[in-house]
Amino acid sequence: MSLQRKVLRDAAVGVGIAETAEDLSVIHKPGCAAAIWRRSPTPVLQSFLEELEPKRFPKARVILRPDDVRQAVAELCNAVEMPDCDGRAMLIDDIAMLADLFADMTKARYLRLRLEVVTTNACRKFHIDAVTARLICTHRGTGTQYGISTDGSDPARVYTVATGMPMILRGTLWPSDPPSGLLHRSPPIEGTGETRFVLVLDPVSDPEDEI
Asked: Reduced to 3 states, what is the DSSP secondary structure of residue 58?
C-alpha cells in the first residue's frame, strides 16, 4: 500500500496513516517520517481513564524485554491501587499489545517503557528525538502535536494526534533517509486543569549501554 494512500487530508505530508496495526509498517517506506494508527478509542477504556483519579495512574521509566511488559504494567497498577476492573484490564492489554507490535517492527530485544502523568507544559518545545524510533500513545488528554519545519523553528501549521491513537516517529538515529523536518511536542496544558496519561516506547539494543 503506497504512502500516498496512507496520508489523510488533515495530516502533514510524510505522515502515514494506518488503518490497522499491521499498516504501521508504513514507517519503513522512504519519505515517511511518522505513522499514526487511526483507531477508535474503546468506550469502556476511555470512560475508565477519564474518571480515574490522577494518583491512580502508574508512572514508570524502565527497560524491559517486550514479553515482560504486561506483568510489569500490572504490578505498577497494583502499586498505585488502580481499581481492578474491565478498564484496567483493557489498559494493560493495550500497552502490552503496543509493546509487542513496536518491538517486532523495530526488531528490538528490549524496550524503554515510560508511563507519564502530565499536568504541566512538559516538553513543549518542538523537536526530533535522539532515538531510532519512538512510539507515543496518549491514553488520556490531548495527544502529541506535530508539524513540518524547514529551518528548525516552530511549524507554521500544527497537527494534534487524537487521544488513543498510537504514533510512531522516526528519530535522528534512523538508519536511512535524511531528517524530514517533522517536529513534535507535548501540547501546552499548564493552567487548564487537564491531566494527560502518556505511553512512550523506545527500542533498546543493550540495557548496559543505557546506564
From this structure: coil
The two counts, helices (H) then strands (E), for the chain are 3, 10
Contact at 8 Å (CB) between 85 and 108?
Answer: no
Residue type, 143: G
203 DSSP β-pair partners: 111
Chain centroid to CA 206: 21
8 A C-beta contact, residue 203 and residue 131: yes
Q: What is the C-alpha to C-alpha distance for residues 128 and 29, in angstroms, rounded to an integer?
A: 19
CA–CA separation, 141 and 191 (whole Å) = 14
Tell me if the pTM is above 0.85.
yes
pLDDT digits (tens, 9 = 90+) for 30-61: 889 999 999 998 999 999 999 999 999 999 99
Cell numbers placing 93? 492489554
Instruction: Name the CA dihedral angle for 101, 104, 110, 113, rounded to a multiple of 10 degrees.
Output: -20
Cα–Cα distance measured from residue 177 to residue 24, given in angstroms and rounded to the nearest whole number: 18
- Name the strands in the sheet holding 60-64, side by side, starting at the edge strand that comes first in the sequence: 15-18, 34-37, 167-170, 133-140, 196-204, 110-118, 60-64
